[in-house]
Amino acid sequence: MEKVLLAIDGTTPDQKAFKYAVDLCMRIKADLKVLQVVSPQDFGGYISKIKTKANKAKRFIEESMMAATFAEAGEHETASAMMEEAERNLRKLLPESARAGVTCDLLVRSGDTTKEIVNYVRDNKDIVIAVYDAPRGNDPKSSARKIKNDLKSITKGLTIPVVMVQAET
Hints:
single chain; alpha/beta; 53% helix; 20% strand
């Protein structure tokens, strides 16, 4: 069966991008593969956010099964908490795909987003289209430049169509 890849760059998936991917899967009768990539360089920006949720951090760390992926970055506790938060944010959207009758699988990885997307599609020949949920940053100019460069790298590395869904501001 054909599959649609929803590639999420960051910890918070955009509901508009997720809905677009689910609707696309319904139209072409495909399964949905969700690849959420959290960059190790983005740890610093999330530290203050995680610290405000200190009472939940213990649970995040205990429940995280992906700490080893981020351990190399040297931020073991923060990495565990961040991965759990990323997964929790995404899992909030998964019931929407179930209601639509679309099979949805989730994979969370750490690394360079463009490389992870290209490698995933190369390794999974049944992906027919990629939907890119770009990160939303605080600085619109640098964010727009990063998105443009990332999208260029992704499309250059793939032979399938790539759709970028921008979050509403």
